[in-house]
Amino acid sequence: MTPILPGATLGVMGGGQLGRMFVHAAQRMGYFTAVLDPDEGSPAGRVSHHHVRSDYVDEIGLAELSGYSDAITTEFENVPAAALARLADHRPVAPAASAVAIAQDRAQEKAHFTRCGVPCAPYAVITGEDALAGIGDELFPGILKTARLGYDGKGQARVATRADLRPAWESLRRADCVLEKMLPLAFECSVVVARGADGVMVHLPVQRNLHRNGILAVTEVHEQCVPPVPGLRAIEAAKAIAEGLDYVGVLCIEFFGLADGSLVVNEMAPRPHNSGHWSIEGADVSQFELQVRTLARLPLVQPRQHSPAVMLNLLGDLWFREGATGAQTPDWASVLCLPGTHLHLYGKAEARPGRKMGHLTLTGPTPPSVRETALDAAQRLGIAPF
Ligand code: ATP
Ligand code: MG
After folding, report:
1. What CATH number was assigned to the domain covering residues 308-386?
2. CA-only gyration radius of the chain, Å
3. How many whole angstroms separate alpha carbon 194 and alpha carbon 107?
4. Does the CB atom of residue 13 touch ligand 1 within 6 A?
5. Fold of 122-181
6. Would you indicate the residue range of the signal peptide (predicted)?
7. How many angstroms from the chain centroid is the CA of residue 195?
8. Measured between alpha carbons, how far is 195 from 117 in angstroms, rounded to an integer?
9. Which atom of ligand 1 is nearest the CA belonging to 181?
10. pLDDT beneath 70, residues of the chain
11. pTM over 0.90
């Protein structure tokens, strides 16, 4: 397969922070970039050579993007699969629309996990009123999730008992949903895999994730951040899931580790993931370079983590300190004076609670030292300890 060499233009659907870091990685390697995003001030649009400001299904916008681009990828999973299929008529597109379509739908996603022999939490699919009565008692207490368009814990409702199910479903506007059994989590982790068009697969080490209010707050990556047996199983499962999709590109799989030592898969994202951001400074190949390489059909080599790493998400909440009026920029200097801190801000104009504004990666010589510095940085910024 002929590689698409630097000097060519790589296109990306979506202009969020993931697109911005993809653009940075592509430009570093000598590519030109094109971003399609309707927002004038989108994080990736602002740093790309070309920015097509159009809707994701606009024929003219899609034609403009494919006119600029030698190959096209996506940075968010809710890009209409039909738009990717349309682009693929003219240019190489990775990941494929068919894989993205599965990741967009929790019911299809879970069916795929099961096909690949990877267990997920017990669940039922709800596609209409009639399904409610047939739900088994074993799924309570549960968590009701819309099948499509959920992210950062949005589109979810806790359902303690059967009596709560109908009101919860109504609150999600009777959308197609899955009801999942609430599991006692010992830890959460994720694995980023990259698979080339030639079937070669590499992965980043297992990442331990802490969520708060349904949003990723902290990722830690070092030996023993996850118990060894479920850790190995997560890597094997992630590879099987990518293989089963005949996937090309970067794929992140999220898992739940349970108290009894077992591991279940939660969901997948057909793109780089927030939990893989540490790899920019903590590994010799980042998840964004992996995305460039898979898209451009360049060789994949197994990334090597050279430093233990901790990533702290910088949510808009940090701009609103107690006692202050309005949004105040956090005191970045107070954390940049610590060793091994790497500040990423996504260039979003307005801070809002829960909005991902940036992240701070900490690298250090040993897991305890990097943890200690990360806890110090968290305290200085007003992030709760972990
Ligand atoms: P993302 O931003 O990762 O796309 P999301 O909105 O798709 O988030 P999930 O990953 O399904 O949401 O859930 C968010 C978090 O809620 C999980 O990381 C976990 O902490 C908790 N959670 C979800 N499902 C369960 C479950 N079945 N049992 C226990 N906790 C759960
Ligand atoms: Mg999730």
Report:
1. 3.30.470.20
2. 21
3. 24
4. no
5. Dna Ligase; domain 1 (3.30.1490)
6. none
7. 16
8. 19
9. 27
10. 152-153
11. yes
Q: Which fold has domain 9-93?
A: Rossmann fold (3.40.50)
Measured from the alpha carbon of residue 154, the closest ligand is 1
pLDDT one-digit tens code per residue, 55-89: 999 999 999 999 999 999 999 888 998 899 999 99
- Nearest ligand 1 atom to the CA of 209 is 18
Report how far Cα 38 is from the mean position of its chain's Cα atoms.
21
Domain 183-306 homologous superfamily, CATH = ATP-grasp fold, B domain (3.30.470.20)
- Tell me, using a 6 A CB cutoff, whether residue 151 lines ligand 1: yes
Tokens of 140: 């309570």
Upstream peptide bond of 95 is cis (omega within 30 degrees of 0): yes
Closest-lying ligand to the alpha carbon of 188? 1
CA–CA gap between residue 7 and residue 33 (Å, rounded): 10
Closest C-alpha residue for ligand 1 atom 2? 152
At position 187, the amino acid (one-letter code) is F
Whether residue 182 has its Cβ less than 6 Å from ligand 1: yes
Query: Dihedrals φ, ψ of 138, to 5°?
Result: -70, -10
Predicted local distance difference test score (pLDDT) of residue 150: 75
Residue extent(s) of CATH 3.30.1490.20 domains in the chain: 122-181
Q: Is 352 annotated as a binding residue?
A: no
29 labeled part of a ligand binding site: no
> Which ligand is closest to the CA of 180, given by its number?
1
